[in-house]
Design brief:
Number of helices: 7
Helix content: 10-25%
Number of strands: 19
């Protein structure tokens, strides 16, 4: 009886301790739950998305690598960098497209009769985009177009309210991108009127951490913005030693392709490049020779990939298999670290062993049935040499590349 009594007392003590713990947990949960006013219905609460258009086919397109932020002699602070030299270099390293984005304030907004009419702006292999760096007191943005547009109109409203600027941008039907959003001359306008954001500016990867944070903030809030790169290079190789300037050494570290922005375009045309950039079938690599980072998803786990980075679809309401693959030259036996980011937060870390045809890794997760979910990846590992810009590797470190997100339940009319 004495032993039984002690056991009973011990059991009661355990139950009492558990009850206190449970009460504490319930109380904490109740305190953390946001109150809902009686009878209130939030019209902006997550709802089922039935208006998402179908994604484009995964086959039949072409991967094109390019440079989306480059300055020629038409930008006053550049040196030894005529358009002919830029295009010859791009051709030599296999760059497929380029936007030469000279500062518009250096010519009073008249890029149409300066950069665009330069007789050197022609190429038999490199696709040429029309654009300029929209240079204002509220920061800088790059404009991209497949055809000439009236850039003067955009320059003229640079000091107006965002609603006015946005209306002109829409009227011109151009792609507007936020430049170096966390650095000097950061983009100081509403992100509601941009199509992309420069998440990787120049070869120095480490200085882009805040730009990545801003990108994740915009994505988490429902803005489906493409992340892109751009070298922001201003200086070329002098034709003779006497033409060298104090900035000439930069060309060994930062020039066309540091970083490189890849687009999966429907065709090899300037318009297809713009469309892919807007839609987000894009990844960025440290240089043109690093392996391309590709992110896919198998929605029904039948072994066939259904969507890729940049695509937006309705959540299937069940686990999805994701695939990260490195397309291009990888170092045999080397370890590549894949960091998966879900809704702006670390989700998981995986490894890929270099070598072979297309090294890859897969992971599984369930996106929310209601509400937005996005996944993107960043890959670190050994750099492939970029002998034409030999000092870039040290400045980009182990960062190989990053993908754009795969989206679930993002409102296309946000």
């Amino acid at each position: 009886m004495m032993i039984f009594g002690r056991c009973k007392q011990h059991l009661f003590a355990k139950l009492f301790s558990f009850a206190l713990t449970l009460t504490s947990v319930i109380g904490a949960f109740a305190q953390s739950t946001e109150p809902v006013p009686p009878g209130h219905v939030n019209p902006w609460a997550p709802a089922e998305q039935n208006n998402i258009p179908p994604v484009a086919p995964l086959a039949g397109g072409v991967w094109l690598k390019g440079e989306l932020h480059m300055h020629s002699r038409h930008s006053k602070e550049s040196s030894n960098n005529p358009i002919s030299k830029i295009l010859a270099f791009c051709k030599s390293v296999g760059i497929d497209y380029i936007a030469i984005t000279d500062h518009d304030n250096h010519v009073g907004g008249d890029v149409a009769h300066n950069t665009w009419t330069d007789p050197e702006l022609k190429s038999d292999s490199v696709l040429l985009l029309y654009g300029a760096e929209w240079t204002t007191t509220r920061g800088h943005g790059n404009v991209f177009s497949a055809k000439p547009y009236d850039h003067q109109k955009l320059y003229d409203v640079r000091d107006q309210r965002d609603v006015v600027v946005g209306a002109i941008k829409k009227q011109l039907d151009v792609h507007l991108s936020a430049n170096h959003p966390s650095g000097k001359d950061h983009f100081g306008y509403s992100y509601d009127m941009v199509n992309s954001i420069e998440v990787w500016n120049s070869c120095i990867w480490s200085k882009n951490a805040n730009a990545i944070m801003i990108w994740d903030d915009m994505l988490s809030s429902g803005r489906k913005l493409t992340g892109r790169g751009g070298s922001d290079a201003h200086h070329g190789v002098p034709d003779s030693p006497d033409q060298a300037t104090k900035n000439t050494p930069q060309v060994k570290a930062n020039y066309a392709g540091t970083p490189t922005t890849w687009v999966y375009a429907a065709t090899r045309t300037p318009q297809a490049v713009i469309d892919a950039l807007t839609n987000g079938r894009v990844c960025v690599t440290a240089n043109p020779y690093d392996p391309r980072v590709e992110l896919y998803a198998d929605l029904d786990q039948d072994g066939k990939m259904d969507i890729m980075m940049g695509d937006n679809t309705k959540s299937p309401g069940k686990p999805v298999k994701f695939r990260v693959q490195l397309n291009g030259t990888t170092t045999q036996g080397a370890t590549y670290t894949v960091s998966v980011i879900k809704n702006g937060n670390p989700f998981g870390t995986y490894t890929i062993t270099g070598g072979g045809k297309t090294p890859m890794v897969e992971f599984t997760d369930s996106p929310a049935g209601l509400g937005r979910t996005y996944y993107r990846v960043a890959v670190e590992g050994p750099q492939n040499p970029y002998p034409q810009v030999p000092e870039s590797m040290a400045l980009s470190g182990n960062m190989i590349g990053l993908s754009n997100p795969i989206f679930f339940n993002f409102d296309p009319n946000f």
